[in-house]
Specification:
Length: 258
Protein backbone atom coordinates (compact mmCIF):
# COMPACT_ATOMS: atom_id res chain seq x y z
CA UNK A 1 0.00 0.00 0.00
CA UNK A 2 1.48 3.37 -1.05
CA UNK A 3 1.79 6.21 1.46
CA UNK A 4 -0.58 9.16 0.81
CA UNK A 5 1.51 12.15 1.92
CA UNK A 6 -0.96 14.63 0.44
CA UNK A 7 -3.83 13.32 2.56
CA UNK A 8 -1.64 13.30 5.69
CA UNK A 9 -0.60 16.92 5.05
CA UNK A 10 -4.22 18.00 4.68
CA UNK A 11 -5.23 16.22 7.89
CA UNK A 12 -2.33 17.71 9.85
CA UNK A 13 -3.18 21.19 8.57
CA UNK A 14 -6.83 20.81 9.57
CA UNK A 15 -6.00 19.28 12.97
CA UNK A 16 -3.42 21.89 14.01
CA UNK A 17 -5.60 24.69 12.62
CA UNK A 18 -8.61 23.59 14.65
CA UNK A 19 -6.52 23.26 17.83
CA UNK A 20 -5.00 26.72 17.27
CA UNK A 21 -8.45 28.21 16.63
CA UNK A 22 -9.91 26.51 19.71
CA UNK A 23 -7.07 27.82 21.89
CA UNK A 24 -7.91 31.36 20.80
CA UNK A 25 -11.44 31.06 22.21
CA UNK A 26 -10.20 29.24 25.32
CA UNK A 27 -7.83 32.11 26.13
CA UNK A 28 -10.56 34.68 25.48
CA UNK A 29 -12.80 32.99 28.03
CA UNK A 30 -9.88 32.95 30.51
CA UNK A 31 -10.13 29.19 30.84
CA UNK A 32 -7.12 27.80 32.66
CA UNK A 33 -5.58 24.64 31.17
CA UNK A 34 -3.93 22.65 33.92
CA UNK A 35 -2.95 19.61 31.86
CA UNK A 36 0.64 19.87 30.65
CA UNK A 37 -0.08 17.45 27.79
CA UNK A 38 -2.99 19.54 26.49
CA UNK A 39 -0.94 22.72 26.86
CA UNK A 40 1.88 21.12 24.88
CA UNK A 41 -0.51 20.02 22.12
CA UNK A 42 -1.92 23.55 21.87
CA UNK A 43 1.52 25.18 21.80
CA UNK A 44 2.83 22.75 19.18
CA UNK A 45 -0.29 23.14 17.04
CA UNK A 46 -0.02 26.93 17.09
CA UNK A 47 3.62 26.65 16.00
CA UNK A 48 3.14 23.96 13.34
CA UNK A 49 -0.11 25.14 11.73
CA UNK A 50 1.51 27.98 9.71
CA UNK A 51 4.22 25.59 8.48
CA UNK A 52 1.76 22.88 7.44
CA UNK A 53 -0.49 25.48 5.79
CA UNK A 54 2.32 27.07 3.76
CA UNK A 55 3.68 23.67 2.66
CA UNK A 56 0.16 22.57 1.66
CA UNK A 57 -0.38 25.70 -0.46
CA UNK A 58 3.03 25.45 -2.13
CA UNK A 59 2.76 21.72 -2.80
CA UNK A 60 -0.85 21.75 -3.98
CA UNK A 61 -0.94 24.87 -6.15
CA UNK A 62 2.58 26.03 -7.04
CA UNK A 63 5.48 23.54 -7.05
CA UNK A 64 5.86 19.91 -6.02
CA UNK A 65 9.18 18.03 -5.75
CA UNK A 66 9.71 14.55 -7.17
CA UNK A 67 12.66 12.16 -7.39
CA UNK A 68 13.41 10.18 -10.54
CA UNK A 69 13.62 6.48 -9.49
CA UNK A 70 14.13 4.78 -12.85
CA UNK A 71 15.93 5.06 -16.19
CA UNK A 72 12.76 5.42 -18.30
CA UNK A 73 13.38 9.11 -19.09
CA UNK A 74 17.10 8.88 -19.87
CA UNK A 75 18.97 10.73 -21.25
CA UNK A 76 16.78 13.74 -20.34
CA UNK A 77 16.32 12.73 -16.71
CA UNK A 78 18.70 10.47 -14.81
CA UNK A 79 18.18 8.18 -11.84
CA UNK A 80 18.72 10.33 -8.75
CA UNK A 81 17.53 13.60 -10.30
CA UNK A 82 15.31 15.66 -8.00
CA UNK A 83 12.92 17.78 -10.00
CA UNK A 84 10.29 20.46 -9.47
CA UNK A 85 6.89 20.27 -11.14
CA UNK A 86 4.82 23.31 -12.03
CA UNK A 87 1.37 22.66 -10.50
CA UNK A 88 -0.50 25.68 -11.92
CA UNK A 89 0.49 25.55 -15.61
CA UNK A 90 -2.32 23.10 -16.48
CA UNK A 91 -4.81 24.57 -14.00
CA UNK A 92 -5.33 24.27 -10.26
CA UNK A 93 -6.84 21.26 -8.52
CA UNK A 94 -7.99 20.69 -4.98
CA UNK A 95 -5.73 18.45 -2.89
CA UNK A 96 -6.85 14.84 -2.31
CA UNK A 97 -9.99 15.07 -4.53
CA UNK A 98 -8.01 16.54 -7.48
CA UNK A 99 -11.07 18.42 -8.72
CA UNK A 100 -10.04 21.26 -11.06
CA UNK A 101 -11.31 24.67 -9.94
CA UNK A 102 -9.16 26.92 -12.15
CA UNK A 103 -8.37 26.35 -15.83
CA UNK A 104 -5.07 27.45 -17.33
CA UNK A 105 -2.94 26.24 -20.25
CA UNK A 106 -3.42 22.98 -22.12
CA UNK A 107 -0.55 20.46 -22.31
CA UNK A 108 1.54 20.71 -25.46
CA UNK A 109 3.32 18.09 -27.50
CA UNK A 110 6.80 17.55 -26.10
CA UNK A 111 5.95 18.56 -22.51
CA UNK A 112 7.43 16.35 -19.79
CA UNK A 113 4.62 15.72 -17.34
CA UNK A 114 4.07 14.06 -14.00
CA UNK A 115 0.74 12.26 -13.76
CA UNK A 116 -1.08 9.74 -11.64
CA UNK A 117 -0.55 6.30 -13.16
CA UNK A 118 -3.91 5.29 -14.69
CA UNK A 119 -3.72 1.72 -13.35
CA UNK A 120 -2.88 2.93 -9.83
CA UNK A 121 -3.48 6.68 -9.34
CA UNK A 122 -1.52 6.68 -6.07
CA UNK A 123 1.71 6.15 -8.04
CA UNK A 124 3.24 9.21 -9.79
CA UNK A 125 4.72 8.63 -13.26
CA UNK A 126 6.75 10.94 -15.48
CA UNK A 127 6.81 10.77 -19.29
CA UNK A 128 6.85 12.99 -22.38
CA UNK A 129 3.59 13.91 -24.15
CA UNK A 130 3.72 12.65 -27.72
CA UNK A 131 0.07 12.60 -28.77
CA UNK A 132 -2.70 15.11 -28.08
CA UNK A 133 -6.47 14.48 -28.04
CA UNK A 134 -7.68 13.47 -31.51
CA UNK A 135 -4.22 12.57 -32.85
CA UNK A 136 -3.52 9.39 -34.77
CA UNK A 137 -0.32 7.82 -33.45
CA UNK A 138 1.63 5.05 -35.18
CA UNK A 139 4.90 3.42 -34.16
CA UNK A 140 6.95 1.42 -36.68
CA UNK A 141 10.61 0.45 -36.58
CA UNK A 142 11.14 2.61 -33.46
CA UNK A 143 9.86 5.69 -35.29
CA UNK A 144 6.78 7.74 -34.37
CA UNK A 145 4.19 8.86 -36.91
CA UNK A 146 1.76 11.61 -35.86
CA UNK A 147 -1.29 12.01 -38.08
CA UNK A 148 0.55 10.05 -40.81
CA UNK A 149 3.61 12.33 -40.68
CA UNK A 150 6.95 10.89 -39.57
CA UNK A 151 8.71 12.41 -36.56
CA UNK A 152 12.23 13.19 -37.76
CA UNK A 153 15.13 11.45 -36.03
CA UNK A 154 18.86 12.18 -36.34
CA UNK A 155 21.34 9.62 -35.01
CA UNK A 156 24.06 11.18 -32.85
CA UNK A 157 26.06 8.10 -31.81
CA UNK A 158 26.64 5.81 -28.84
CA UNK A 159 25.33 7.03 -25.50
CA UNK A 160 28.14 7.89 -23.04
CA UNK A 161 26.63 6.06 -20.06
CA UNK A 162 27.91 6.66 -16.51
CA UNK A 163 26.86 6.26 -12.88
CA UNK A 164 23.40 4.79 -12.41
CA UNK A 165 22.94 4.94 -16.19
CA UNK A 166 25.63 2.35 -16.94
CA UNK A 167 23.05 -0.35 -17.82
CA UNK A 168 22.19 1.81 -20.84
CA UNK A 169 25.70 1.43 -22.27
CA UNK A 170 25.42 0.35 -25.90
CA UNK A 171 22.25 2.38 -26.52
CA UNK A 172 22.11 4.80 -29.45
CA UNK A 173 21.64 8.51 -28.74
CA UNK A 174 19.11 10.01 -31.16
CA UNK A 175 17.81 13.56 -31.64
CA UNK A 176 14.03 13.51 -32.08
CA UNK A 177 12.10 16.50 -33.46
CA UNK A 178 8.53 16.83 -32.18
CA UNK A 179 7.61 19.93 -34.15
CA UNK A 180 9.37 22.84 -32.44
CA UNK A 181 10.54 20.62 -29.58
CA UNK A 182 13.85 18.83 -30.04
CA UNK A 183 14.97 16.29 -27.47
CA UNK A 184 17.37 13.37 -27.17
CA UNK A 185 16.10 9.81 -26.84
CA UNK A 186 17.79 6.44 -26.39
CA UNK A 187 17.30 3.49 -28.72
CA UNK A 188 18.39 -0.03 -27.79
CA UNK A 189 19.44 -1.79 -31.04
CA UNK A 190 19.19 -5.18 -29.32
CA UNK A 191 15.45 -4.88 -28.62
CA UNK A 192 12.61 -5.45 -31.05
CA UNK A 193 10.27 -2.62 -31.98
CA UNK A 194 6.68 -2.60 -30.68
CA UNK A 195 4.46 -1.64 -33.62
CA UNK A 196 0.89 -0.30 -33.49
CA UNK A 197 -1.58 2.36 -34.67
CA UNK A 198 -4.00 4.12 -32.32
CA UNK A 199 -6.34 7.10 -32.10
CA UNK A 200 -6.28 9.25 -28.97
CA UNK A 201 -9.72 9.93 -27.44
CA UNK A 202 -10.84 13.35 -26.21
CA UNK A 203 -9.32 14.59 -22.94
CA UNK A 204 -6.55 11.97 -23.09
CA UNK A 205 -2.84 12.02 -23.91
CA UNK A 206 -0.35 9.55 -25.33
CA UNK A 207 2.99 9.54 -23.48
CA UNK A 208 6.35 7.86 -24.02
CA UNK A 209 9.61 7.63 -22.09
CA UNK A 210 12.71 9.14 -23.70
CA UNK A 211 14.51 5.86 -23.00
CA UNK A 212 12.32 4.45 -25.72
CA UNK A 213 13.11 0.73 -25.38
CA UNK A 214 13.23 0.75 -21.57
CA UNK A 215 9.99 2.47 -20.63
CA UNK A 216 6.54 1.19 -19.68
CA UNK A 217 4.29 3.86 -21.10
CA UNK A 218 1.18 4.42 -23.25
CA UNK A 219 2.29 1.64 -25.57
CA UNK A 220 1.61 -0.86 -22.78
CA UNK A 221 -1.10 0.56 -20.51
CA UNK A 222 -2.94 3.10 -22.67
CA UNK A 223 -3.70 6.82 -22.47
CA UNK A 224 -3.38 9.36 -19.66
CA UNK A 225 -6.72 11.00 -18.77
CA UNK A 226 -6.57 14.77 -18.42
CA UNK A 227 -7.74 14.56 -14.81
CA UNK A 228 -4.65 12.47 -13.94
CA UNK A 229 -2.19 15.22 -14.87
CA UNK A 230 -0.25 16.60 -11.91
CA UNK A 231 1.94 19.20 -13.60
CA UNK A 232 4.79 20.04 -15.93
CA UNK A 233 8.39 19.23 -14.96
CA UNK A 234 10.61 22.26 -15.47
CA UNK A 235 13.87 22.13 -13.48
CA UNK A 236 16.35 19.79 -11.77
CA UNK A 237 17.20 21.14 -8.32
CA UNK A 238 19.43 18.29 -7.12
CA UNK A 239 21.05 15.08 -8.34
CA UNK A 240 22.12 12.25 -6.05
CA UNK A 241 23.61 9.29 -7.90
CA UNK A 242 24.66 6.55 -5.51
CA UNK A 243 26.50 4.73 -8.34
CA UNK A 244 28.72 7.71 -9.14
CA UNK A 245 32.08 8.37 -7.48
CA UNK A 246 31.14 12.00 -6.80
CA UNK A 247 27.57 11.08 -5.76
CA UNK A 248 26.29 14.65 -6.42
CA UNK A 249 26.43 15.75 -10.05
CA UNK A 250 26.69 19.51 -9.62
CA UNK A 251 26.43 20.09 -13.37
CA UNK A 252 22.80 18.95 -13.30
CA UNK A 253 21.69 21.26 -10.50
CA UNK A 254 19.58 24.09 -11.92
CA UNK A 255 19.27 22.46 -15.34
CA UNK A 256 16.00 23.20 -17.10
CA UNK A 257 13.92 20.24 -18.31
CA UNK A 258 13.00 20.20 -21.99
Amino acid sequence: MSFDFELLLVLLTIFTGLIALASYFILNFKYTIKSKIISLIIDQSKSLFPIFFIVLILRSFIFEPFRIPSASMMPTLLIGDFILVNKYDYGLRLPVTHEKFFKNNLPERGDIVVFRYPENPKIPYIKRIIGLPGDKIAYYNKTIYINDEVVEQVTIGSYPAYGAGLPMRGSILVLEKLGEVENNILIDPERDSLEFVTKIPDSHYFVLGDNRDNSKDSRYWGFVPEENLVGKAFIIWMNWDGESKNIINYKRIGKSIK
